[in-house]
Amino acid sequence: MSIVSEYEKLIADQTRVLGSDHPDTLTTLRRLAEFRFDCGDFTGAVDDYGQLHSARARVHGADHPDTLNALYNLATSRAMTGDLATATADYQQLYDLRTRVLGADNPDTLRTLSALASCRADADDHEGAAADYQRLLDARTRVLGSEHEETLRTRGDLIYQQSLLISDQQQTPS
Fold it and tell me: I want to staple 45 with a disulfide (CB 3.0 to 4.6 A). Which of 36, 58, 105, 116 is the partner?
C-alpha cells in the first residue's frame, strides 16, 4: 500500500472517530499535503492545502498563524502547478493579512512579499515584481541593513526586474 493511501485511510478514520476539524486530523492532512508537495504532486498538494486552509480558517479564524501558513503553502503549491494568477492573488491576500496581523517588518510578512514578487516575475509581470522588490528592499534595508545577504539578494532581484522592463520597452514598437 502506498503512503498516500495510508494517509488517506488514516484521515478517513480520524474524521470518523475524531471529526474533520480535530487537531490530529488536520495534522495528518498537513503531513499528506507536505508529502505530496515533496514528491512533486503539486496538484494533490493544492487539493490538500486547500482543504487544510478552509478547515484552519473555520476552526481558528483567518488571522491565526496556522491558517496563514496553510494559505502560504497553498499559494506555493499553486505556483508550482503553473497557476500563477491564483498564486499571485493568494500571496497578495496573505501579504495584506500578515502586514495587518504581524506588521510590515515581520520575517513572515517579508517572506510572503518575496514570494509575491517572485510569482509576479514568473508570470512576466516585471512592473509588479519590481514594485514588490522595491518595497522588500526598503524593508530589508531598514530591518537587516544594506549589507545583509538578503538585502543584497533583493537588490539584485530588483535590478534584474528593472532590466527586463527596460528590455521590454525597447522591444515594443513606438
Answer: 36
CA dihedral 85, 33, 35, 89 (to 10 degrees): 20
CA-CA distance, 12 to 6, in Å (whole number)?
10
CB atoms within 10 A of CB 143: 15
Distance between CA atoms of 129 and 63, rounded to whole angstroms?
Answer: 25
Tally Cβ neighbours within 10 Å of residue 21: 13
Q: What pTM value is reported for the model?
A: 0.93
Distance CA 136, CA 150 (A): 10
Average model confidence (pLDDT) across the chain:
96
Which residue did the predictor score with more confidence, 152 or 172? 152
